[in-house]
Design a protein that fits this description.
This protein has 503 residues and is α+β, with helices and mostly antiparallel strands. The protein has 3 domains: 133 residues, 3-Layer(aba) Sandwich (Phosphoenolpyruvate Carboxykinase, domain 1), CATH 3.40.449.10; 243 residues, Alpha-Beta Complex (Phosphoenolpyruvate Carboxykinase, domain 3), CATH 3.90.228; 57 residues, Phosphoenolpyruvate Carboxykinase, domain 2 (Beta Complex), CATH 2.170.8.10. Helices cover 24% and strands 27% of the residues. It contains 12 helices and 30 strands. The strands form 8 sheets. Strands 1, 4, 5, 6, 7, 8, 9 and 10 form an 8-stranded mixed sheet that branches. A 6-stranded mixed sheet has the order 14-12-13-22-26-23. α8 runs antiparallel to α9. The longest helix has 18 residues. It is globular, with a radius of gyration of 22 Å.
C-alpha cells in the first residue's frame, strides 16, 4: 500500500499562515500558554500545573497512516475537515525544533484550539523554540472533534489528531514522522533512550561509551537512561535522550527532544528514582492525570485517574541530563524486556540482536492498551510507531549493527520465573555500569542457549540463574522458542539468517 495518487492534495496550503491569520495566536511564550490553560489547571503544592484529560492513553487502534493503511474517501475527508477547521476556529499555533543534528532536525508546527491550550503548553515544553525556519511537519489537534481518528500523511508531513485530548498523541504525531524521515535518509528511527558513560575500564583507563536503551513505555527506559550510576568524577553518566532517537549510518545517534521528558509517574519513588522525582516536584513540571487533591497535594502512588499518569519535566532540572542531545558514537544497545524466562542480562551476536529487535518482547502497559496492561506482548523494535514494512526495519538494524560493530544485550528489568526473583534498579544499573567498564566475564550457557555472565562486580549473579527459578524450564524455553519462530515467520521481508537465529 502506498500514497500513490494523494500527492496532489494541497494539504499544507489549506492551513492558515499563522503570521497573518486573524484567528491564530502564533508562538505564545510558555508563560502565556499556561495562562491560556488556566481554566483547566489545578495548581500543585509545588506550584506546577496539573491537568486531567478525558482520554488517558494513545488511541492506537484508531490510528492510520497512508503508507501502511488504505486511505478511504472518508479518511481524506477527515484530514481535509481538520485543516479547514484550523482556518476557522480560534487557534494556538506553536513552532518547535525537533532535533539538532544536521541530518536529523525538523521544524514542527502544532495547531490546537485555544480552549485546549494545555496540550500546546505541555508539547511546547518538550522541544526547543524555533529558529525561524519553515516547518517540515504539521499536526492539527482537535480534541473536541465528534469522531476519534488519528490520520497520518507521511508524504506531506501532516497529521490530524481528532477526538482525543491525550497529550501523548501530539508528541508522537511528530516523533512518528521524525523516525520515518530518518529511515528515508538511510538511518533508523528508534524508540529508545541514549546515554553517554565515562568509566574506568579493567586497566584503569578512562573511556567513553555510548549506550542506547530500547524499550516500551513503563519498562524502565527512563529510569535506566537518566540514572547517574553512582559514579564520581572523573567518571560520570549523562542522559542525552529519553524517548526517540535516530541511529544514523555514521554511527552517531541523533536526539529529538531538547527541552523536556514525558515520564510515567505512577509509583515514582524518591529513593529509587531520586532525579526523576525531584524534577517532577518542581514548579516547571506539568502533570497529566496524576492524583492531585484540590489543595494541591500530589499522590504519585495513586492511580486515581489511570496508571498511565505522566509528567513533563525539564531537562535542566536533571543533574544527569547533558547539554547535548546527540550521541557521537553508538557502542552498546540494550533491549529492555520483562520476559520472565530471560536472565538479568545476556550478550547477543549480530543476528540474535536483530531477533531481539524484531521480537520486542515486553509487557503491555497502560500507555498502550490499558485493558491489556501486564500481558506479554511483542512489538517490533519496541516501537509502536513504525511506518513501513516492519521486516525491513529488522534488516536495516542488522546492517547498521554489523557496520558499526556495536555490542548488543537483552536486559530484564522485571523478574524471573513466577515472580520468584525480582530484578531491581540496583541490579540493572550495576550491570549497565560494568558492561560499560568491560569487567563482566561471559560464557555460553548450553541449557539457556545464551551468552550470560559468569561474574558481575558488585552482584551475586549466580543467584539470578533462570533455570533455578522456573519449573520445567526446558519445556518452557522450548515453547518460547517455538512461539518466537512462528512470530518471525509473518515478516516476509525479514532475512532468513535472522529468522534462523532465534534464541
Amino acid at each position: 500500500m502506498s500514497e500513490t495518487g494523494t500527492e496532489s492534495r494541497p494539504l499544507v496550503r489549506q492551513l492558515p499562515d499563522p503570521t497573518t491569520a486573524s484567528n491564530v495566536r502564533y508562538n505564545p511564550s510558555l508563560e502565556e500558554l499556561r495562562e491560556f490553560a488556566e481554566p483547566a489547571e489545578t495548581t500543585t503544592e509545588f506550584g506546577s500545573a496539573s491537568y486531567v484529560s478525558e482520554v488517558r492513553s494513545r488511541s492506537a487502534d484508531l490510528t492510520k497512516n497512508a503508507v501502511d493503511d488504505d486511505f478511504t474517501d472518508r479518511d481524506h475527508e477527515l484530514v481535509d475537515d481538520a485543516l479547514d477547521i484550523a482556518g476557522d476556529r480560534e487557534m494556538l499555533c506553536v513552532d518547535r525544533l525537533m532535533g539538532r543534528h544536521s541530518e536529523a532536525a525538523f521544524c514542527c508546527r502544532l495547531f490546537v484550539p485555544v480552549e485546549h491550550a494545555r496540550i500546546a503548553y505541555a508539547w511546547a515544553s518538550l522541544f526547543e523554540p524555533t529558529d525561524g525556519r519553515d516547518p517540515d511537519l504539521y499536526t492539527v489537534h482537535l480534541p473536541d472533534y465528534d469522531e476519534t481518528a488519528i490520520r497520518v500523511r507521511p508524504d506531506t508531513g501532516v497529521t490530524t489528531v481528532l477526538g482525543t485530548d491525550y497529550i501523548g498523541e501530539a508528541k508522537k504525531s511528530f516523533l512518528r514522522l521524525y523516525m520515518y524521515r530518518i529511515k528515508q535518509q538511510g538511518g533508523l528511527g528508534l524508540h529508545a533512550g541514549s546515554k553517554r558513560v565515562r568509566v574506568r575500564d579493567a586497566d584503569g583507563e578512562l573511556q567513553t561509551v555510548g549506550q542506547v536503551f530500547m524499550g516500551l513505555s513503563a519498562t524502565g527506559k527512563s529510569t535506566l537512561t537518566s540514572h547517574g550510576c553512582w559514579l564520581e568524577e572523573p567518571e560520570d553518566a549523562a542522559m542525552l535522550q529519553d524517548d526517540v532517537c535516530g541511529l544514523l549510518s555514521d554511527g552517531s545517534v541523533a536526539g529529538s527532544e531538547g527541552e523536556g521528558l514525558f515520564i510515567k509517574t505512577i509509583g515514582l519513588d524518591e529513593d529509587e528514582q531520586p532525579e526523576l522525582y525531584e524534577a517532577a516536584t518542581t514548579e516547571s513540571a506539568i502533570l497529566e492525570n496524576v492524583a492531585v487533591d484540590d489543595d494541591g497535594t500530589v499522590h504519585f502512588d495513586e492511580d486515581r485517574y489511570t496508571s498511565n499518569s505522566r509528567a513533563i519535566i525539564r531537562r535542566d532540572e536533571l543533574e544527569s541530563a547533558d547539554e547535548e542531545i546527540d550521541l557521537d558514537r553508538l557502542d552498546q544497545v540494550f533491549f529492555i524486556t520483562r520476559n520472565p524466562l530471560m536472565p538479568p542480562v545476556a550478550k547477543l551476536d549480530e543476528e540474535q540482536a536483530a531477533v531481539a529487535f524484531m521480537l520486542g518482547e515486553s509487557i503491555e502497559t497502560s500507555a498502550g492498551d490499558p485493558s491489556r496492561a501486564g500481558e506479554s506482548i511483542r512489538v517490533v523494535g519496541t516501537n509502536p510507531f513504525i511506518i513501513g514494512p516492519e521486516g525491513e526495519e529488522g534488516n536495516i538494524f542488522h546492517e547498521l549493527i554489523d557496520i558499526l560493530d556495536a555490542d548488543c544485550y537483552v536486559i530484564n528489568t522485571g523478574y524471573l520465573g513466577e515472580q520468584s526473583k525480582d530484578i531491581g534498579v540496583t541490579e540493572s544499573v550495576t550491570i549497565l555500569t560494568e558492561a560499560a567498564r568491560g569487567t563482566i566475564e561471559w560464557s555460553h550457557d548450553e541449557q539457556m542457549g545464551l551468552t550470560i555472565p559468569d561474574s558481575v562486580p558488585g552482584l551475586d549473579i549466580e543467584d539470578y540463574y533462570v533455570p533455578d527459578h522456573v519449573d520445567d524450564y526446558d519445556d518452557a524455553l522450548a515453547e518460547l522458542r517455538a512461539e518466537r519462530r512462528d512470530y518471525l515467520e509473518q515478516f516476509d521481508q525479514l532475512r532468513e539468517e535472522i529468522k534462523a537465529a532465534v534464541y
